[in-house]
Amino acid sequence: MNTYIVPCSEAQGFSRVFIVDPGGDADFIIEKTEDSEVAGIVLTHGHFDHCGAVKELKKRYKNAPLCIHKGDLAYTGKTAYDTHREDFFKLGALYLIDELQDSFYDFPEADIVFDKDEVLSFAPEWRLIHTSGHSPGSICLYHTSGHLLSGDTLFASGIGRTDLRGGSFEQLQKSLERLFELPGGTKVYPGHGGFTSIDREKLFHEKCGF
């Protein structure tokens, strides 16, 4: 999966950044951010592959708030382990929870809980768009210069699965309709795979009949 290190503002460059979806390899992420002020850690949703490095990053960046939408709040704090275990069970991969349990026991509580479309307090050039469907609390982040961090809502020639906790294909369809209202030239940076654009994905979805 893709982890993004994002400038809080164009003017500040990489002197002040936030981290999106730190799925793993905390040491590598710390290496890439050690010369920056980390202003926050944002999860586009709560699935295990997007938050595996959170515990280690919160130890290093104690003042960086952990942010998630309220729909996926159960993936954090005291309920994190059981919630992830439920997903592994549905995936038929319950054995993996034993290998990854250190990442989800004593998982940090969320510091900022989103409940509506809003701008990031520490990066006001970025606007949150609630895009439920892949999970109840899935979000995308949009920058008015024409950049979208789409999490697992929208991929290059694909969309997120809807068979895990709280997933809904119907809600995902409505979320895609919202994203397709963005300017066609918007560059899309998904949670997995390569980059794409709104125009390209609108065309793909029209051809596929989505």
Percent strand: 15-25%
The general outline is globular
Helix segment tally: 6
Radius of gyration equals: 16 Å
The arrangement of helices and strands along the chain is EEHEHEHHEEEEEEEHEEH
Q: Kindly, what is the distance between the CA atoms of the first and last residues, rounded to a whole number of angstroms?
A: 24 Å
Helix content: 25-40%
By DSSP, the count of extended strands is: 13
What would the average pLDDT be, to the nearest integer? 94
* Helix/strand/pairing category: alpha/beta
Q: Spans with pLDDT under 50 lasting ≥5 residues?
A: none
Mind describing the biggest β-sheet? 6 strands, mixed
Taking strands numbered 1, 2, ... along the chain, how are they ordered across the largest sheet?
A: 6-7-8-9-12-13
Description:
- The protein has helices at residues 26-33, 54-60, 80-90, 96-104, 169-179, 198-208; strands at 4-7, 16-20, 37-42, 66-69, 112-114, 119-120, 123-130, 139-143, 147-151, 154-155, 158-159, 187-190, 196-197.
- Helix content is 27%, strand content 25%.
- The strands form three sheets. The protein has a six-stranded mixed beta sheet with strand order 6-7-8-9-12-13.
- With 210 residues, it is of the alpha/beta class.
- It is globular.
- The mean pLDDT is 94.
Compact summary:
The protein has 210 residues and is of the alpha/beta class. Helix content is 27%, strand content 25%. The chain contains six helices and 13 strands.
